[in-house]
Amino acid sequence: MKNREIAKIFYEIADMLEMQDVQFKPRAYRKAAQNIESLSEDIEEIYKRGELEKIPGVGKSIAEKVKEFIEKGSVAYYEKLKKEIPVNLEELSSVEGLGPKMIKLLYKELGIKNLNDLEKAAKEGKIRHLKGMGERTEQKILENIEFARKKGGRILLGFALPEAMKLIKFLEKYAEKISLAGSLRRRKETIGDMDILAVSLNPEKLMDEFTSMNEVDKILAKGETKSSVRLKSGIQVDLRIVDKESFGSALQYFTGSKEHNIEVRKIAVRNGYKLNEYGLFDKKSNKKIAGETEEGVYKALGMQYIPPELRENRGEVEAALNGALPALVERKDVRGDLQMHTKWSDGANTIEEMVKEGIKLGHSFIAITDHVGTLKIAGGMGEEEIRKQMKEIESLNEKYDDFHIFHGVEVNILKDGNLDMSRKVLKDVDVVIASIHSAFRQPMEEMTKRLLKALENDVVDILAHPTARIIYKREAIKFDVEKVFDAARENDVILEINAQPDRLDLNDILAKKAIEMGVKLSIGTDAHNKETLRYIELGVAVARRAWAEKKDIVNTYSIDKLEKIFSK
DNA sequence: GCCGTTTTCGGCCCGACTGTTTTCAGTCG
Description:
Elements: H1 3-19, H2 25-37, H3 43-48, H4 60-72, H5 76-84, H6 89-93, H7 100-110, H8 115-123, H9 135-151, E1 155-156, H10 157-171, E2 177-181, H11 182-186, E3 190-191, E4 194-199, H12 203-211, E5 216-222, E6 226-231, E7 236-241, H13 247-255, H14 258-270, E8 273-276, E9 279-282, E10 288-290, H15 294-300, H16 316-321, E11 336-337, H17 351-360, E12 365-372, H18 383-399, E13 404-412, H19 423-428, E14 431-435, H20 444-456, E15 462-463, H21 481-490, E16 494-498, H22 508-516, E17 521-524, H23 536-545, H24 559-566
Parallel strand pairs: 4-7, 11-12, 12-13, 13-14, 14-15, 15-16, 16-17
Antiparallel strand pairs: 1-3, 2-4, 5-6, 6-7, 8-9, 9-10
Helix pairs in contact: 1-2, 1-7, 8-9, 13-15, 20-21, 22-23
This protein binds one DNA strand of 29 nucleotides through residues 23-29, 31-32, 56-62, 96-102, 131-134, 136-137, 140, 182, 192-193, 195, 221, 223, 225-226, 228, 238, 240, 253-254, 256, 258, 261-262, 265-266, 268-270, 274-278.
C-alpha cells in the first residue's frame, strides 16, 4: 500500500507551502493526506478504478499528483518545492516548538537542514540573534533536540494508559470532575502526549499539585487554565482546568481528533451556532445552547452521541447525523480471551493460574493456545505433550465447573502455507490458531498465497496477528488484503485482534475493513503471564475503533456457540 | 486546492501559551 507514502508527501507539501505563506492550500493538502492515510483500501486500487476524486479532499490537482506518484514514483511539484527549501522536514519538525516558519528562517539565515545542523548552531549561540528568537528559544531548542532524539515521539497505548490512570487517581482528590482527553481517550494505538481535563473548586491548588507530582521531571508551562509537564518517563502531560458549565464542550474539544472537531464545528456553523471549548453558542444572540455535557453538545447539533474511539473523521459525523452509529462492543460484552500461553510452551504461569486470573477478570472462558511444532524458541510442544496437556485441561474443566477452558494450539504457518503440526493432532484440539512468525522477505504475491493456503486448511479456526507487525519495530507483512479477508470469510476463519500493546494486529483500520467484508474477529491477549491478561481492554479498544458491534467479536458469544464455530 | 441544503466563486475552525515583543507571530492542539 502506497497510502502512507503518498500521505507523507502531501503532509510535507503542506508544511512547505506554509513556509511560503501560501494561504489555504496547506489545509487542503493536509486534509487530503489525512483522508488518504486512513483509507482502508489500497489507493492504487482506487486509482485503477479511476475514482481518486471520490476520496474526500482529493480534487483534480491532488488526484493528478497521486496518479503521478503511482505511475512514476515521484511528484514533480513536491521535488520542486523540496529544492527551494532542501531541509529534513520530518526530523526538524519533530523538535517541539519548531514549525514551518521557524524552520524556514533557520534555513535561510543559517543554512540549517537537519538536527545536527540545528544542534551545532544552537550550541554556538547563533540562533539567539535571529529575528524573533532569543536566548530562551535557543535553550529550549537544545533541550528539545535531545528529547526528539531520545524518544522518537510516541509511546504505546498499552503503556500510557495505566500511567495516565494513576495520575487521574491522584489528581481526582483535588478536582470536582476529571477525565482523560485527547488521543488517550480515543484509545489510539500510540500516544503523543496525555491530556487531562478537570473542573476544580480550587484550581490553583490543583495546578500546584499537578506540577509538583513525584513523576514530574520538568514543568514546561504553568498557567491558570493550562499547565504542561514532562514526566520522568518522558511523556508530556497537559492539564486543563475549565468551568463546570463548560466541561462537556471542553471535553469534546480536547478529545479531538482535530479532524473530527473541524467536521463537528462545521455542523455547528451550518446551524447558526459557534462551537468552542466554552460551549455551543447561538451566533446571533451569543446565547449558550449547550456545554455542560458532551452528550448535550452532540444532541443540540442533532447528532447521536459519538463515542471517543470513533472520533477520527472516518464517517462518524455523518453516521451520527443519520442516527446510524454502530452499537459498539463493550468490555462487559467480552466473556473470555482467545489466545494465551502457559508454562507448557513459553509462558510464565500454569494453566490453573491463568484460569484463576481469568475468573478474576470476569471471564467465563479462556483458550489455552500454547505453541506447537518446531518453533523451538517458543518451546513448541510435540504431539505427545499436546495429548498430555489435553488431559490436564479436561480435569481442570471438571474442577472449575462454571468456567470453560478451550484447548487450543498456536501453530506456525510455514513458508509454503502448510502448518507446522500433523493434521491428526490438530483435528483433536478444540481450537487451532495459525500465525506467521518468520516473515522472510517474501514478495506480496507469495505471502498472499501462503496465507490463502492456511485459511483454506479446514482445521484452522483463527488467524492470529495477521500482519505480524510490531509497532515501531517490524513492518507489517504485505499481502492482498481483499483476497485474504475474502478467504477468511469463505472458509469461516476468524481474524484476530491481538491485544499485545506493541502488536494491536489487526489494527483499527484493517479490522474495520474486515468487519465491512463480513469477517468475524476474535480478541486474544497473547498473554505470556497472568498479569498481561488485562490487555484484553486494549483489544476491545481496537475493536471499538474499528466500529465493531457485539456480533462482530466472537469473544462475546456463548460457550456453546463458540464450540459449534470451532468444530466447523 | 477543495467544495456547495443560500454559493461553480468566495469562503476556508478557534483559542491559549510562549517568547519576543510594546501589540504580535508562531506553535500547538
